Amino acid sequence: MPITSRPLTQTELLVELEPVVGRELDRHLAVAKEWFPHEFIPWSEGRTFDGVLRGEAWSPEDSSIPEPARVSLIVNLLTEDNLPSYHHEIATTFGRDGAWGTWVHRWTAEEGRHGIAIRDYLTVSRAVDPVALERARMTHMQNGFATEYDGMLRQLAYVSFQELATRVAHRNTGKVSGDPVCERLLSRVAADENLHMLFYRNLLAAAFELAPSQTMRAVTDVVASFQMPGHGIEGFARKSVTIAMAGIYDLRQHCDEVLSPVLRQWKTFDIEGLDSEGEQAREELSAFLAKLEVAATRFEERRDARRARAESVS
Question: For binding Fe cation 2, which residues are annotated in this chain's numbering (predicted)?
Answer without folding.
Answer: 111, 163, 193, 196
